[in-house]
Amino acid sequence: METLFPPATANSSLPTQSSPLSILEAFIPIHLSSLISHSALDNAVPHILTFLFISTAAATGWTYWYDQFTRLLRLFFMSTAEIHSRDELYEQMMAWIAEQEFSTRTRYFVATMAFRSLFAESVGESEEEETQEPDAPYWERNRRAPLQFTPAPGLHFFKYKGKTVTLERIANHWGRGWFPQEILKFSIMGREPQLLKEILKEAREKYLMKDKSKTVVHRPKGPTEVGSPPTWARCLARPSRPLSTVVLEQKQKEMFVDDIKDYLEPDTQKWYSERGIPYRRGYLLHGPPGTGKSSLSFAAAGLLGLKIYVLSLASKTLSDSGLASLFDALPPRCVVLLEDIDTINIAQSRKPVDATAETAKKDTSTEVDTRVSLSGLLNVIDGVASSEGRVLILTTNHPEKLDAALIRPGRVDMKIEFKLAGEEAIAGLFVRMYKDYNYSTAQAEEEPPTDTSGLLTPPCTPTTSARATTSPTDPALIAERELIRQRRRNEAKRVAEERAVKEKRLLELVAKFAQTMPQEVFSPAEIQGYLLQHKNQPERAVECAEKWVISFRLALCVLYFFIFFFYL
Ligand SMILES: Nc1ncnc2c1ncn2[C@@H]1O[C@H](COP(=O)(O)OP(=O)(O)OP(=O)(O)O)[C@@H](O)[C@H]1O
């Protein structure tokens, strides 16, 4: 019987090792010889190989010449602005692009959570949360978080002030750095780049206007690629906290803010350099937890219009090199808030070995295995990246644990102690919480009553209404106006009286509350927590204060009791 595909040994015309078919088979993982007749294949293979070779060469040549052509076109006939994703401007440009009409029209786009929330370290800290109702459940807030659309990587065209602009979005671009990044290229025809600068300026201004009267907070973001250094991520922009809401001795607050203001004055840097003093300023805020150290830092940053970069040295993922790269990436003028600098390794690393061991024994419960060393921290405080108007604020709950080198003058220029709430602080917290209580009454005075009759329209206002053209000597009109004026006077008087009564009542309640609360036992954060339980009920807050103090003390006794038995 004749076999359709005879064995290899039976036919001398089968492809040998070097035949075109065997070469083709090396590229195509199918045993072609078993499928196609040998003579036909032998004839076709050289053509197929030639075709593959030519098409590959053509594709490579096209890419090369296209690149050369566009490069030359850009060089001689176009103006181009390039923005790299590691630059702060990239974020601003992307926000601007997302708002443009062409972004909504494009059919191939990248969908993300609203652009600023992309940079949030966690959903819980996203900017959108700030603008949403705080009481809404988590899933509801997530559901309402806006999406944003930007054109996908590739070439896009749009019109700006009547001119065609090309936007090229290049993803995963390997430049000179170690890690790929995204690049945006804006190009226009012509050798005058003014229009591109206008686009950049507009995007920047729009973006920054959103931050007006807000404090922009940055926190470190873990490396996006393995081995890459951590970077700063914009977490949120919250309305600036008025300094008056931080309960602290007025003198201390003023001293702190005035010192920073003076440091940031344009002439100060020159003054420092003329005297050979490193231009930097450090502050140490110390005291028990929840006494307002971070709050004061945020309020000062908001008041001075500076961005704040918050970093906890207790982070286990932070190393000396990570800390150095974070400091390298800081903008020239900003506030850097370093929290928890009493972390064991940092605080004790310069102390004698046995003393360290002794302390470590005592503090085993609170020990944190941080990878930032004291020398690493001192390097960044003193290093090149530390200059240029940066305000360094260190906070700690245990100033006694700090190495003297860390807080010597030159590194720490001012120390502010925060204490548990005394009488004044307790009263201040109460007033802050309830000063606007029944605000609607006070508002009535500021807003004049609605002019339903139209009689309050200023006489000079051009109007065609019959009333306005009526002669002011009309006795009926005069009487009516007088009546309205009288009503307004009465209303203002009533509101003022009501306000006086309210203020008196508030003062009574404040005095009662301050008497009930023990002095310097609770932190402002604890008192605030209690008052929040009675958000709109000042009377109730005063009534229940005593019970709360007793239950708090009872809970504390129980805790000590258990600790005592545990150690026995
Ligand atoms: N002095 C204060 N004046 C007004 N509010 C305060 C004060 N202290 C604490 N609070 C309130 O308590 C909360 C915690 O305050 P904050 O984070 O500033 O304390 P902290 O001293 O930095 O705490 P920690 O040492 O634990 O970091 C905030 O909501 C803040 O409003």
TrEMBL record:
<dbReference type="InterPro" id="IPR027417">
    <property type="entry name" value="P-loop_NTPase"/>
</dbReference>
<keyword id="KW-0547">Nucleotide-binding</keyword>
<keyword id="KW-0472">Membrane</keyword>
<feature type="compositionally biased region" description="Low complexity">
    <location>
        <begin position="462"/>
        <end position="472"/>
    </location>
</feature>
<keyword id="KW-0496">Mitochondrion</keyword>
<dbReference type="Pfam" id="PF00004">
    <property type="entry name" value="AAA"/>
</dbReference>
<dbReference type="GO" id="GO:0005743">
    <property type="term" value="C:mitochondrial inner membrane"/>
</dbReference>
<dbReference type="Pfam" id="PF08740">
    <property type="entry name" value="BCS1_N"/>
</dbReference>
<keyword id="KW-0378">Hydrolase</keyword>
<dbReference type="InterPro" id="IPR050747">
    <property type="entry name" value="Mitochondrial_chaperone_BCS1"/>
</dbReference>
<feature type="transmembrane region" description="Helical">
    <location>
        <begin position="548"/>
        <end position="567"/>
    </location>
</feature>
<dbReference type="InterPro" id="IPR014851">
    <property type="entry name" value="BCS1_N"/>
</dbReference>
<feature type="domain" description="AAA+ ATPase">
    <location>
        <begin position="279"/>
        <end position="422"/>
    </location>
</feature>
<keyword id="KW-0999">Mitochondrion inner membrane</keyword>
<dbReference type="GO" id="GO:0005524">
    <property type="term" value="F:ATP binding"/>
</dbReference>
<keyword id="KW-0812">Transmembrane</keyword>
<feature type="transmembrane region" description="Helical">
    <location>
        <begin position="48"/>
        <end position="66"/>
    </location>
</feature>
<dbReference type="Pfam" id="PF25426">
    <property type="entry name" value="AAA_lid_BCS1"/>
</dbReference>
<comment type="similarity">
    <text>Belongs to the AAA ATPase family. BCS1 subfamily.</text>
</comment>
<dbReference type="GO" id="GO:0016887">
    <property type="term" value="F:ATP hydrolysis activity"/>
</dbReference>
<dbReference type="InterPro" id="IPR003593">
    <property type="entry name" value="AAA+_ATPase"/>
</dbReference>
<dbReference type="InterPro" id="IPR057495">
    <property type="entry name" value="AAA_lid_BCS1"/>
</dbReference>
<keyword id="KW-0067">ATP-binding</keyword>
<dbReference type="InterPro" id="IPR003960">
    <property type="entry name" value="ATPase_AAA_CS"/>
</dbReference>
<feature type="region of interest" description="Disordered">
    <location>
        <begin position="442"/>
        <end position="472"/>
    </location>
</feature>
<keyword id="KW-1133">Transmembrane helix</keyword>
<dbReference type="InterPro" id="IPR003959">
    <property type="entry name" value="ATPase_AAA_core"/>
</dbReference>
<feature type="domain" description="BCS1 N-terminal">
    <location>
        <begin position="53"/>
        <end position="246"/>
    </location>
</feature>
<protein>
    <submittedName>
        <fullName>BCS1 N terminal-domain-containing protein</fullName>
    </submittedName>
</protein>
